[in-house]
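Input for the complex:
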Amino acid sequence: MKRISVGVFKLTSCSGCINELIYALVKHPELLKLIDVKYFTELQDVNALTELNVAIVEGSCVREEHEGILKKIRGLSEVLISMGTCATLGGVQSLRVGVDVSEVKKYVYLNPEYVDAYNDVKAVGELIQVDLSLRGCPVNGDALASIIKKIVIGGWPLEVYESLCADCKRAGIECVVVAKGTPCLGPIVSAGCGALCPSFGRGCYGCYGVKDKDLDPEKIFEMEKALGRLGLSKDDFYSLLKGYSMSLVKSLKI
Amino acid sequence: MSAVLTRVEGEGEVQLITKEGSLIGVEVRIAEPPRFFEYLVKGRRAFDVPDIVSRICGICGVSYILTAVRAFEKGLGVTPPREAEELRLAILGAEKVKSHILHAYYLHLSDFFNTSSLPELVDRNPLLFSNASRVLLWSRKAMEVLGGRFHNVVNIRVGGVYGFPKLDKVAKLLKEMPGVLNSFKYIADVVLSLENIPMDEQGLKLMAVYNGSTYPCIADDIYISYGSGGDLIAVSDFEKFVKCEQASYSNALRYKLINGSEYLVGPLARFNIGYRHLSGESRDLLDSYGWRPPLKNVFQSIVARVAEVHDTLIYLRDFLENYREPSSNPTYERLEPRSGTYVAAIEAPRGLLYHRYEVDDCGRVKYSNIVTPTAQNQASMEAAIMNVIKGEALSGEMAVEKAKRVIRAFDPCISCSVHSIKVEARSIDS
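Predicted:
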């Protein structure tokens, strides 16, 4: 079988998804024989920006330079995957969006003029065509391994558009909203984590992002009101959406 | 001369500044884009902070969560229930195993075998790979069972934990422990027998949290070691004992002691300060290879990492053996944040991590200061490169490669550090 060439690139992020990818390679060492790693600075010293069968991008864009890098990677790649919530939806750094970045810089740095970042935080898909978007903060390493295997043999993963509630029901987890009145974003958030927070008795805070298919945006406002009655303020509700679903907040004009 | 840093967590560069062929300066350039975490938590409910700051680091999120949680609990005068605290320390321990194995094996060991990538190292020694994998994959399972997942765990909250794992899942982890310890001993054997670990003394000043009775982990005091003698200071005085310095040539914020000297945080600092609190089993293991404190060179940090992984596995074994699922969760669920200042420091895998939060009357954060291990080690990193390369003919690639190796020995976490440091490269002749 011909090995597929792969490049892994990092923009603005914590490397948590890259570490899930490393986990996938450790758990399934046979993958290392199926792929030819051309660019992956966390893993190897010799890296070449060259034509790729698959480019995997972690992180979101916070400055002009990133847009150039992304366009270059897109031009070199047959398939481009956005890996994780930052790349796919913007990520937690989006909490600053809406405030002039010069204010933000001044707040954190002594010499804000040296810090290069623009006002916006953009998901990869806001700038270039993305062939496959993987959500999760972090992305699920086992799902990642299965996807790489499918692509190696010429297949493609099935996309599922369920909400987190489906995971909860399948696992037989008691609904935290119904049983305890705990605010939970489950109904409007994409499945994929296995209903992790409810399995520990807490509400979902939405780190896989709000659903972008099979969800009437009106329901998001309904959800905000319902959770408001359980004590989650409107401000805190929209902060969770900004922190893990910023590109949808923009496109749905929430 | 400059080179992109590889096999580190995050994106950075090292720049060697030369004048007439000799090295006059070193700059570790953090290329990582800023994420402004201190701003991200501004206005957020204090108890929501742990889940946000967890995202600072893709490897050591538990340390960030627990530092914030500890700050709020301390400030509110709450001692977490014993069962919850033990579970949280076990999650922190599993993270330490994960972080040290990731660094020691997957990122760092190549330097001692002169290989340039993980796949190359795997080919060279498949048995080492399978043993390292076994330990890493077990640490993942432990984090999943105890904390929810490998990264951004969901089970730690102010006042305790959200839930306790089922006994059968814990028993499964325990059952695998003898095999994991055996695998780890294979790695330990390889690392502790390395004959090319530099031994020369670097005169390191060290810092770690310390309570005088246990190995540095979580404490109200900090020990600063000057080589001969040291000072014990309160965590609440930390900001008085260090200064945030800005070099004239760049906007690099780096931390030094108030007397101007750089200092080291991390496994080597903890090892030298807390060696006598390691378990007898861990000390015997080290002793059988001739390793004793003090470690004197940053390259020996890998020895301290091995010692810590062993000691942590022993801790986890004891925790799992004695684990009982409480009949009800003793967590304090009705806590509310009050206005005030909240401070804590704990030992993240890479070293002392300090958080300070100012909370307003509505229980929301109005100011925060987060001092990461890598920001504190920045000055030490540059000094260590000067120390290692000085006096040697700078033959291009070799010098850069050496500098990169020094930096890797520190296990820098660039994603963590970037929110507080930003370093620009400068060249005065090229």
